[in-house]
C-alpha cells in the first residue's frame, strides 16, 4: 500500500446536507481522518501513490471514511449496491472512475475488493459506544429527510440514558436540522445550556420546582442538541468537547444540593440530619460512580457500561442526571419534592452497590480469562 494518499471528488453536486455542500462535507470528513491532499479530476494523471475517489453525491458515515483513509484498497458500495467510493492505486484511477460514474460494472475493477457497508469491519464505533452498520448513501433530494434522519441518528451514542436514547431524538432532530442552516454554532447552544443549568440551580434553591424543572429539562435537551449539531455539521472542536462535558460532569451535585436546600422553604422540609444523609448518599454516590467508571477504564481497558449487553441496558436507567431528574419531576408532580429527593438517594445508593459488584465481577473475569471485550465488538469475554 502506498504511503502517499490523495482525495479526489468525482463529479459535481450543489446539494447541501446539514448546512454544507456535499463535496465540502466529504473533504472535511477526510481531512479529519488525516487525508488533507485534495486534487481535481484533471490532476489525476499527475497523482502519485494511492487515490481515494469519492462521488460528489456520496453521504458516508465516519467509520467508512476512516477505513478508506487507513486501510487497504477497496470499492465501497451503498446499501443498494451503487458504487460510491474507492481507494485504488493511481494506475487504476480511470477504471475506478468509470465504475463510480456507472460506465462500468464493479466487477471490472479487478484486484480491488468490493464491500457494502454491512461487509466492512466497521460496525463497532468505540467513540460513540455503539454497534451498528455504518451508512453509505447516494444523495437523492427526494429522500432528503430520510438521509438527514439516518445521518443524524448516526451521531447518537449507543450506551446512554433512556431519555436521551428514546425521548429526545425526534425533537432534537427537528431543532438540529433547523439550526444547521443558521449562524448558530454548537458552542452557542452549549452556552445557552449553561444558562439553563444556572437557572435550574437558582429555582431549585428557591423551592420553585416547576420553573426549576423546566430549566433543567431544557438544559438536558440542549445538551443533546449541541453534540448532534456539532457532529452533523462537522463543527466539533476540542474546546467544545471540554465545555460541554465539563458542564455535564460538574453540575448534577449542585442541582441536588439546591433541591435539598430549597425544601427548607416548603412544608416538606427534611430534618437536618435526614437532609445531610440524603445529600451525602446522592453526591457521594455520584462521585464514587464516576470513580468506578474511571477505574474500569484504567484497569479493564473499557467502559463498564459497554462490557455486556445487560450493562448497556442498565446504563439507560442507572442513577445519572436524567433518570434522577425523572424521579425529582415525579416527586414535584405529586406534591412531594422531599420524597423525590429521597428516591434519588435510594436509587443512587442501590446503583452504586450494583456497579461495585459489576466492577468486581469484571475484575475477576479479567484475571481468569484475560483482557475483556465489549459485547459491541461481537466478543463479550
Structure in words:
The protein is of the alpha/beta class and 381 residues long. It has two domains: 5-119, Spore Coat Polysaccharide Biosynthesis Protein SpsA, Chain A; 155-377, CDP-alcohol phosphotransferase transmembrane (TM) domain (Four Helix Bundle (Hemerythrin (Met), subunit A)). The protein is 55% helix and 11% strand. It is built from 13 helices and twelve strands. It has helices at residues 22-32, 62-70, 93-100, 144-153, 162-167, 169-180, 186-206, 209-232, 238-262, 272-300, 309-315, 321-333, 337-369; strands at 5-10, 16-17, 20-21, 38-39, 50-55, 58-60, 74-77, 83-89, 114-115, 124-125, 130-131, 136-138. A six-stranded mixed beta sheet has the order 4-1-5-8-7-9, sandwiched between helices. The protein has a two-stranded antiparallel ribbon with strand order 2-3. The two termini are 33 Å apart.
